[in-house]
Amino acid sequence: MLVLISYDVETATKEGKSRLRRVAKACVNYAQRVQNSVFEADLDYSQFLRLKDRLLHLIDDEKDSLRFYYLGNDWARKVEHFGARQTYDPEGVLIV
Fold first, then answer.
1. What percent of the chain has a predicted confidence (pLDDT) above 70?
2. Where does the pLDDT of residue 38 fall: very low under 50, low under 70, confident under 90, or very high at 90 and above?
3. What are phi and psi of 28, to 5 degrees?
């Protein structure tokens, strides 16, 4: 299933900047960055639950926000891309 993850982490303090780096790193481990604080993740349900649990433990509920948009398996009809950044195919070949 494709999940869109977005977050807004308070960065006015040293602790907030540290949280932001940890949240971004956790997302990079599971997902593809499509904008600064937005990631697309093509995950099975157990992977998604692990990522969600990790992110919920990293954020500060009083200062930060985290959103998950569930696009499901039929995501290709629901996503359009326009603009400068090239898009990617989450189901395509990834060369590392």
1. 77
2. very high
3. -60, -30
- pTM beyond 0.85, yes or no: no
As a whole number of angstroms, the distance between CA 50 and CA 18 comes to 21
User: What are the residues whose beta carbons fall under 8 Å from the beta carbon of 8, sequence distance 6 or more?
Assistant: 37, 64, 65
Segment 49-61 shows an average pLDDT of: 96
d(Cα 84, Cα 93) in Å, to the nearest integer? 22
Phi and psi dihedrals of 65, rounded to 5?
-135, 150
Please say whether the beta carbons of 38 and 71 come within 8 A.
Answer: no
Q: Computed over its alpha carbons, how large is the radius of gyration of the chain?
A: 14
Q: Which tokens go with 55?
A: 């992110």
DSSP state of 76: G
Q: b or e along 34-69 (b: 16 or more beta carbons within 10 Å of the residue's beta carbon)?
A: beebbbbbbbeeeebeebbeebeebbeeeebebeee
Distance CA 80, CA 83 (A): 10
